[in-house]
Design brief:
3 helices, 11 strands, flat, five-stranded antiparallel sheet, six-stranded antiparallel sheet, 176 residues, alpha+beta
């Protein structure tokens, strides 16, 4: 019985060592350990905007931060002005398109038309992959409700609302 307790204690110690040793060796905030504290994020935002940390931010300071972030995104080619949307959580996001608006998705973006009417918007000969029916939807063809579409390439493909419509979108997109 005593031997079992000693063996169990040694086993627990080894497991604890192997589980915690990689965590302890990682630098906080690195790619291996992306979790950061709020103070770290606040300091990065303050550094970006050139303001001092401590206390509440004024509306003017918040506006300056937002404008700086948008400007840097536009300069790096990552953003598309104020309409740029990005869903990095890996979840579907409800998006409303007004009649005539176009949602252009990046490669791999998933789109499901929930209500309203919409047609495929493509720039080349290929269309949108309709995973529900196993077909290719070409430019101008109507999209059926509750069909899952995937944007196969980052070349301007998307969905144009022909009436006000609600979509579920997973991935990066831009509304034109």
């Amino acid at each position: 019985m005593k031997l079992k307790k000693i063996f169990f204690a040694i086993l627990c110690s080894l497991l604890t060592f192997f589980i915690l040793s990689p965590v302890a060796a990682q630098t906080p905030g690195s790619a291996e350990d992306p979790l950061v504290t709020r103070s770290y994020v606040d300091r990065l935002i303050a550094d970006l905007a050139g303001i001092s940390v401590g206390g509440n931010l004024t509306q003017q300071q918040l506006d300056r931060i937002v404008n700086e972030v948008i400007s840097r995104l536009d300069q790096s080619g990552q953003g598309q002005g104020s309409h740029f949307q990005h869903n990095t959580a890996g979840r579907y996001t409800p998006v409303q398109l007004l009649s005539g608006q176009i949602l252009v998705g990046d490669e791999g973006t998933e789109i499901i038309l929930r209500s309203g009417t919409a047609v495929a918007h493509t720039t080349g000969t290929d269309g949108l992959a309709n995973i529900t029916t196993g077909t290719d939807i070409r430019h101008g063809e109507e999209i059926g409700n509750n069909n899952m579409l995937i944007i196969p390439r980052d070349d301007g493909r998307g969905v144009m609302a022909t009436s006000n419509a609600w979509l579920l979108v997973k991935g990066s997109y831009d509304i034109l």
